[in-house]
Amino acid sequence: VADGVSGPHSGRRVRRRDALPLYSVAGFLVLFGTWFAFAHSGWVPRLVLPSVETVATTFWRLTQDPFAGFTLQQHLLSSAIRFGSGFALAAAIGIPLGLMTGWFRWLDDIVSPVFEALRFIAPIAWVPFAALWFGTGFGGPVLIIFSGAFPPCVINAHRGARLVEPRLIEAAQTLGASHWRIITEVLLPGALPAIVAGLRISAGLGWQSLIGAELIVVSSGIGYLMVQGQSNLATPIVMAGMVAIGMVGFAIDVVLRAVEARIQRRWAG
Amino acid sequence: VAGSASERGGGRRRLTGVVTIGGLLALWVMLAAGGVVDPARFPRPVDVWRAAVQLSDRGYAGGTLLWQVWYSARLVVLGFLVAAATGVPLGLLMGMSRRAEAFINPAFLLIRPIPPLAWIPLAILWFGLGDTAKIFVIWFAAFVPALINTYTGVREIDGLFVAAARVHGASSWQIVSEIVVPGALPLIFTGLRLALQASWTTLVAAELVGAFFGLGRVLIIAAQDIYPGMIAYAMAWVALLGAAMTWALGRVERRLIPWRTA
Question: ipTM of the assembly?
């Protein structure tokens, strides 16, 4: 659309394109400039809006001195371990389940209604039962991550398995392959691009669910650090926590994006 | 699992579903009657029933069922509308103007990796435990999917339509209202559906962290009282309201996009 809107004179369009990075720089400057100006103007209390520099130095200080029991790295590590466990569990159960419901119709008929009914419960609403059943240390948060990360694993594995070319399945059947071999050697590789795409969605939802769980019930982790900062009215600590969460979430996404690109390249070739 | 109902309809499938759910419920009743489950950890049917009666009659966590549902639903609708009213126009703008896109994108990319739930502590610091903090957090959760999908929808419109309209002397306003918006509408609604689900999850989380009323408040008080019956009942209402809102948006979508059959 933009091409149509910017007019038919292609020469003008090219020149405008060259100016685009300037707009991006302007966007950055306006964002940070507004923050800087407001924080230093004295209109807004420091408590409400700390300056950019304060947040940066707080971030640095949190990596050196413990807050809420641990340093920032230790909080992040305990969050990462919980996340890794819940995510691995969701993938380890969700992907085989999705492939199997994609292959066995009767299993799909049984699993679907339960799955659809449970899916409407927001992952975060499992927090009370998770705490009651598995405690607030490790098991409870892992269940919350699991409930966030599980559905995309199942759905994508299922869809991927359904979209595998019938010719391949028929060929395997003709050669006398067992159910097990069809699932592991035909459906799994065929569905892999869809599965990896699902894993990326899972990771995002799981990471977000973990933050929610840590805000509510846990006594370590990056979410807990933020809650403690909030109850101490330490806005810079809360903001530094948000920066750390954003960085980790971004890193997770970059890694999975790389895996996805690699698999798609191999499968396309 | 997903979309398979339409792949092959039929009574057999529905029957299996009813039998499965019925079987699980029967199993629950039997396990509870047999004393296998610990009522302090897992609710029995009678516990859920008692919780239902208590919440409707005397109320729990500061209000009756009607009040708590109204409180949560009102906030989610408000937050969703604010997010839709900002995200969709901004998405249209970014889709139509490369300059606007270049200007807004950096800030957007910077904020996007922060999950909406991570804004909750900051929202409480800034606005306290009241309505404003909730709407602020919901806005962050719902704004992103509304914007991205609107933007993608606009970008996928064939530029030829716009060029043709321009040649025939259509005004900018006509191009926006008669080509860009209708063309992007299916994806706009996809975005709104995702935004609505995100709004609901986020609100429940925000109410769990700190609120005066609402279903999330009921959940967290029930957790503190170790009251499994009430936890289960409140969770059922969280699911029910989420489903009802998705259904209502689907009705609006079918009304506005009659040409889309799916």
Answer: 0.85
